[in-house]
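Task: complex structure prediction.
Instruction: return structure tokens for all chains below.
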Amino acid sequence: MMLGLGSVEIAMVFWLCLLASLGCVVYGILNWNKKGKPDATAITIDVKKGDK
Amino acid sequence: MVTKIVIISIYLAVIFYLGFKGWQSTKKSTDYMLAGRQMNPFIMAMSYGATFVSTSAIIGFGGAAGLFGFPLLWLTLATIVVGVFIAMVFFGKRTRRMGLALESHTFPELLGRRYDSRFIQGFAGGIIFLFIPIYAAAVLIGISRMMEISFGIPYGTALIIISLILAVYVITGGMKAVMYTDAFQGLIMAVMMIILLVGTYVILGGVTEAHQTLTDMMNLMPEKLQKGGMIGWTQGAHFGTPLWLVIYTTIVYGVGVGVLAQPQLAVRFMTVPSDRELNRAVLYGGIFIPLMTGVAFTVGALSNAVFYKSVGKISIAVAGGNMDKIIPMYIEQMMPSWFSSLFLLAMLAAGMSTLSSQYHVGGTALGRDFFERFVKVSSEKSVKITRIGVAITLLAAIAWAWVLPPSIIARATAFFFGLCAASFLPIYLLGLYWKGMTKRAAKISLVGGFSASMFWLLFVHAKEAKVIGLCKALTGQDTLVSSATKGSWVWLLQWVDPNVVALPISLLLAIGVALITAKMDKEHLKLCWSNI
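Output:
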């Protein structure tokens, strides 16, 4: 748990960094395909047309 | 030397190829400014990360970790939570949606259109265009010095060569070229940092063993640091001591909230086609950012154990007292020679990826925000003026790099971060989330935050005020508070960071004025929120 680190505070931040990183990965995986509400503005259509 | 030249040549060939790809697919102003709003999430996240983390973050803060040890990991935690998660999820998604609804091409344009004010766009663009060259100069100085040491090229020549390379692909290829090359550069950085981390743990016999070695070295912590409150590299500092304050204010200072209002980062949220890409970017960013800052700080701290094992000295002693030399000396002396060439490349990549985005955002601030929208030049000329803007930003950065004193890197970076936070953050955050925010409040907060920040920098904060010397010229004193009684709270103000003062002023102005001024037109607000 302490991984050889000298204080609880430092061991905690070490684990928190790993957890935060893991949290971002999990969030990314869970929401991988979630596009949210479709964009409803004219410019999207314009951009897509322009790119084709 | 031959290896170094071969590696750099291959690197440059790839950069030019990617720059060419960017140029080839750039046809409209949306392409040039926002990569056509169709960017891939992996490239967006890598570009965001590589722009965010520059050479000075790795070398400078990594060196600080060599001195103070593992407490710097709080900064890594902040970069992941604030710089990736909060930025992408709470700022990114709304920025993209509102940016699209308001047809914004740049960060100042988003602010300007949200508040229906050309003044806000012009003023914000002006601040960015005028001050980003100073930040860019800091990064440019860093990598030019590195080229000077590694290749023996004179500093001035290195400065010109790097600028010319960047000029070619940023001016011609716009945002697409910037983001493609950023992603490639980010990849190089990530691979090198993984090797560095694994290599360091292997030298010390494993993760727990490495930490334990450093833990057991606590009695080697220099006396001066012990007196300041340090216990050890893996123990941290005593609560409330001066060094405890230094370490923890550095966290606010290093990343703080300033990262949320960086125009070159915020604009990236508008380059992707949907929320999905931002969700995926959280995953990539959540791996990339800790690989940069987390590894730099862990290795910086552990360098003490490695140096002590092989030469019997701690890092700061090996580096001759210069914190900035800890990481370079560790790479040079403790890592295999093939790695030091590759690491040099990674640092060059880190600097170039930050610079390209700074030049691009400086150019769009002049072309799009100032001339096209504020001065009202025809939009057909927008891309052309933006290209000229990029060139002017680049030349201004070279000029600054020539005149700024050597130890300016960290200060110039903090200067720009602070200025952006005080000027933009309140109106950006409230603009995204509060319909009650008014046009007048936004103008007053923008100008007030900017003025408070500049006043503090020029007249109160000793670090900048002394170097700039305007206060001395006008009043005969280094700062307005220099003559106060030593040790009094007024006297102590000269060490208080501008952000601590200017950001709350700007936020209070925004909220206070918004409560007493006329609300914005309902139809306009409906448009702003039409895509949310």
